[in-house]
Amino acid sequence: MPKEYLREQLWKLYKKLPEELQEAVFSQETADSIGNACERNQVPENKIPEVAERTGYVLSGLLPPNEFEDTLIKKVKLKAETAKNVAREINRFIFFPVKEILSKLYEIEIDPPARPPGVIKEVKPKTSPEKEKPETTDTYREAIE
């Protein structure tokens, strides 16, 4: 778990980050994603800055993504179910788009985001439709000449 960092320490770390992570840290899209995830999961308004701070820690290389949910529970004091849902959304919309860079930064494999409940996974057919058709003629149709 990261300790609290001084602004100067964070700024030095930020300057060393890859450009994509620098952009993600301060982007409006990141801020909107955090706000939306917190709003959808009814995170108290006074806790949203703490969620944003911890998200920034992950993007800055201070908090491994696999510890993010536990940090929301232990440090931010969110309920377990709320922390799980917020972490899933932030992982999907913020961390996953930069997963290659985060993987290199932390030297870990980042799993794709879990699908939210109610989303049906697309199942691809095992064989192509052409192979499944029987090779018989259709007796109900007339030949076109």
Record field, number of beta strands: 0
Give the strand content. under 5%
Query: What's the gyration radius in Å?
Result: 23 Å
Structural class: mainly alpha
- The proportion of residues forming helix, as a percent range, comes to 40-55%
Question: Can you tell me the number of structural domains?
Answer: 1
Spell out the helices and strands N to C.
HHHHHHHH
Total count of helical runs of at least 4 residues: 8
Low-confidence spans: none
Cα(first) to Cα(last) distance is: 76 Å
In this structure, how is the largest beta sheet organized? none
Mean pLDDT: 81
Give a verbal description of the structure.
The protein is built from eight helices and no strands. It is mainly α and 145 residues long. The chain has one domain. Helix 2 packs antiparallel against helix 4, helix 3 (28-40) packs across helix 4 and helix 5 runs antiparallel to helix 6 (80-95). The protein is globular and about 85 Å long. The model has no long low-confidence stretch (mean pLDDT 81).
Give a concise summary.
Helix content is 54%, strand content 0%. With 145 residues, the chain is mostly helical. The termini are far apart.
Write the layout of secondary structure elements.
Elements: H1 7-16, H2 19-26, H3 28-40, H4 48-60, H5 68-74, H6 80-95, H7 99-106, H8 129-132
Helix pairs in contact: 2-4, 3-4, 3-6, 5-6
